[in-house]
Amino acid sequence: MPELPEVESVRKYLEKSLKGRRILQIEHRFPGILSTPPQAPSPLLPVRFVNADRKGKMLILRFDKDQTLLIHLRMTGRLYFPVSAKDLLPHTHVLFILDRGQHLAYSDPRRFGRLIWFVGRSDDDIRELRALGPDALSVSEEGFAHLLRTRNRMIKPLLLDQSILSGLGNIYVDETLFLARIHPKQISSNLSGKKLARLWAATQQILESAIENGGSTIRDFVGSSGKAGGYQQYHSVYGRGGLGCVQCGQTLRKVLVAQRGTTYCPKCQRLQYRTKVRSFKRR
Ligand SMILES: [Zn+2]
Which of 106, 130, 154 is the last residue of a domain? Predict the structure, then answer.
């Protein structure tokens, strides 16, 4: 499952590869993967690529004539540049025919991914982008603290909620909470200012180092660069349930938090309550 660092790697790759290129035609090889808004049922082709942007796990490819292509890779979506028709991967559902005889292809065996073509000047016009909370890598420390402090929810499901903060998934939330020494079931409104600052810094550090290392599973999402992401070797907790904590040696515990497999260190990540629990004497 691509998370923010993987999508960011794909974004950088597309930004470089599509520079100055034009899309001449679009071939829908499987219906329902690429959608267009009812008011603009077909893209105004040809279009020239302007830049590649990202919000959370959503890729945003911008073209001239106010045309935008949103790409959500979900589970198995993958973009690649086939040299010719014989190089198409199985499950290639959308083919963008570029100038200079090149192609950009989208394959997706499980077909959970979505491509949405959109015409409009502002991102606010795009419902799919409006529905996302601020991007986890661009949110300010104050903005981040405000999002968490004003909610009364367990921290892990809150960080996974894309409408609150976009981009974090299971791997990076576990890694971030471990680095910040916060229990996954900690109630967000109980976090002190110091912990919120530590959590924000941990988010930035984990995401940036994952991006530097090409994400955890980048091989699955980008075609022709063909490099496997190197980040998985740096996981401290994810996939390490039952093994020793890298900080204290305690056995890492694997539990379910809001239906998601969650690994944490019971010694480094203790549940804390800020409000005093009153004790009542029994009569
Ligand atoms: Zn520990």
Answer: 130
pTM: predicted TM-score of the whole model, two decimal places: 0.84
User: Does 128 qualify as catalytic in the annotation?
Assistant: no
Alpha carbon of 270 to ligand 1 centroid (Å): 10
Who's near 256: CB < 8 A, 6+ residues apart?
Answer: 262
- Give catalytic status of residue 3 as yes or no: yes
Q: Determine which one of 57, 114, 181, 195 is catalytic.
A: 57
Residue 123 domain-assigned (yes or no):
yes
Alpha helix (H) residue ranges in 151-230: 155-160, 170-180, 193-212
Q: Is residue 238 part of a domain?
A: yes
How far, in Å, from the CA of 56 to the mean position of ligand 1?
A: 29
User: Would you call 254 a catalytic residue per the annotation?
Assistant: no
pLDDT the model gives residue 225: 40
Distance 240 CA to ligand 1 centre (A): 12
Q: What are phi and psi of 260, to 5 degrees?
A: -110, 135
| Full domain range(s) for residue 171 | 141-264
Rounded-to-integer distance, Cα 26 and Cα 270, Å: 53
Please indicate, yes or no, whether residues 84 and 124 belong to a single structural domain of this protein: yes
Cα-to-centroid distance, 251 and ligand 1 (Å): 8
- The band of 162, judged by pLDDT with boundaries at 50, 70 and 90, is very high
- Mean pLDDT calculated for residue range 248-258: 96
Q: Is 280 part of a structural domain of the chain?
A: no
In a domain, 119, yes or no: yes
If one counts the domains in the chain, the total is: 2
pLDDT digits (tens, 9 = 90+) for 83-133: 887 889 999 999 999 999 899 999 999 999 999 999 887 888 888 899 999
- Catalytic: 260? yes
